[in-house]
Specification:
Blueprint (H helix, E strand, L loop, with lengths): L2 H33 L5 H26 L3 H12 L3 H25 L5
Keywords: Cell membrane, Membrane, Transmembrane, Transmembrane helix
Membrane topology: Multi-pass membrane protein
InterPro entries: DUF3817_TM
């Protein structure tokens, strides 16, 4: 894996968890808006919107650089629209990055089958 591909995956990982947290907080704020006088929806909506846009941009970059299959790309996009999806995306991206590093080292050392 080259450095640009690793960086693309790292950026996607860095934004996936905050995007998921902001989505959950937005849901809580929506409930509070309807049950109390507290209204933080405009602020949380803006924060979540920014993080969602960043996630989609980083997702597109990662898809372009990693050459994911359509199914993998759809999975990672679907994780952006599910309230806790970012946590699952982060876990899977971490495993994918680690596997790529191991495969890259094996290729570099000339191990057969890598």
């Amino acid at each position: 894996m080259d450095i640009k591909t690793a960086s693309a995956l790292r950026r996607l990982r860095l934004v996936s968890v905050p995007e998921a947290v902001s989505f959950l907080l937005l849901l809580v704020c929506s409930v509070l808006k309807r049950t109390t006088e507290f209204n933080a929806v405009p602020v949380m909506g803006a924060i979540h919107g920014l993080l969602f846009v960043l996630y989609v941009l980083f997702w597109a970059d990662a898809w372009n650089r990693t050459k994911w299959s359509l199914g993998t790309a759809v999975f990672y996009f679907a994780m952006s629209v599910l309230p806790t999806g970012g946590f699952f995306a982060d876990k899977r991206l971490k495993r994918e990055a680690e596997d790529a590093v191991i495969a890259g080292r094996a290729r570099k050392e000339g191990v057969v089958g890598a």
